[in-house]
Write a structure and sequence with these properties.
alpha/beta; 9-stranded mixed sheet; 10 helices; elongated
Length: 322
């Protein structure tokens, strides 16, 4: 690898890890050597790319623009190498953006199989309940749940997330089980990030719509915290079933008002516009589609969610007898 190309790859890793030490370790350099090579690159370009302090390394405005251009060039080189090899082997770094709950619950447990098939590939996760800028953050694949704004980005639907209400058996024993939507007004409600915007929960049954004004007893900005609050018996939570599949199956949570629907949201894999998607990105999306198709709970709130509710109800009865 030429010195200039190596310096460019080093700069990208410093920019993404925000650390000369971390980037140096990845590429087999000491922290002083990594810092010196990037400084040489800046002198060659004639612009300051990074701001260095004792606490952090951040991109300058020029560095942000330079990073976008360099990453596109390096991605194109990686793809050209891949085609020239003709072996089907995937290499380099794949940056995947997703919400923390979805990544932890549905992607990471399946990742070993994907990595075993592509041993020369590295995966970086950018995890947040907020949506990332695919271009600015150099995201190769983003998993997004819910409405997609009009965009030139390429979307591939990989599943559906059905909203529901859930609470712990402990909470329901103490506070009672709601029989109708209006009963929710007398209960402690947990407001998570998916329900911070609307001030009401909308429910439907047999063509009848009902709206319940939400006043959160507990409000959190991370879905995992909302689920944890519900498991701890702090109230009733509104969430997508993918965020609490394990808790429903184990009986830690049970569905509330299971005959009422709260809508559903598509789960899509997004490939950024403006540059050719990496082969690794396409391979990862195909892997997710194949893996997640096998999960019966993706089929909707019918049989699968009824089954988890039945198991949870059995667990609740056992706990009551004890």
């Amino acid at each position: 690898m030429s010195d200039r190309l190596f310096a460019l790859r080093l700069f990208v890793r410093v920019a993404r890890t925000r650390s000369f030490s971390a980037a140096g370790r990845e590429l087999g350099l000491s922290q002083p050597s990594a810092s010196r090579l990037v400084a040489n690159l800046e002198r060659e370009i004639g612009a300051s790319l990074l701001t260095r302090t004792t606490r952090a390394v951040t991109l300058t405005e020029a560095g942000t623009e330079y990073l976008a251009g360099v990453e596109s060039i390096l991605a194109a080189l990686d793809e050209a190498d891949h085609v020239a090899r003709g072996t089907g082997e995937l290499r380099g770094v794949l940056r995947v953006a997703a919400s923390l709950p979805f990544a932890v619950r549905e992607i990471v447990p399946r990742l070993a199989m994907f990595l075993a098939a592509h041993p020369a590939l590295r995966v970086e996760f950018v995890l947040s309940d907020q949506r990332q800028d695919l271009v600015a953050d150099a995201i190769d694949v983003a998993i997004r749940i819910g409405h997609l704004p009009d965009s030139a980005a390429v979307a591939r639907r990989i599943g559906l997330s059905h909203r529901l209400l859930a609470a712990s058996p402990t909470y329901l024993r103490k506070a009672g089980t709601p029989k109708a939507p209006d009963d929710l007004l007398a209960h402690a409600l947990i407001v998570g990030p998916a329900s911070l915007g609307p001030e009401a929960w909308a429910l439907r049954k047999d063509g009848k719509a009902k709206s319940v004004r939400v006043m959160g007893r507990v409000t959190v900005t991370a879905m995992e915290a909302a689920i944890a609050a519900a498991v701890a018996g702090l109230g009733i939570v509104s969430t997508g079933h993918l965020s609490c599949r394990a808790e429903l199956a184990s009986g830690a949570l049970v569905r509330v008002l299971p005959d009422w629907e709260m809508g559903r949201a598509e789960v899509n894999a997004i490939l950024p516009a403006g540059r050719a998607a990496k082969r690794a990105a396409h391979a990862f999306v195909e892997f997710l589609v194949a893996e997640l198709r096998s999960i019966s709970a993706w089929g909707g709130p019918g049989a699968a969610l009824a089954a988890t509710s039945a198991r949870a109800e059995a667990s609740r009865r056992r706990a009551k007898k004890a």
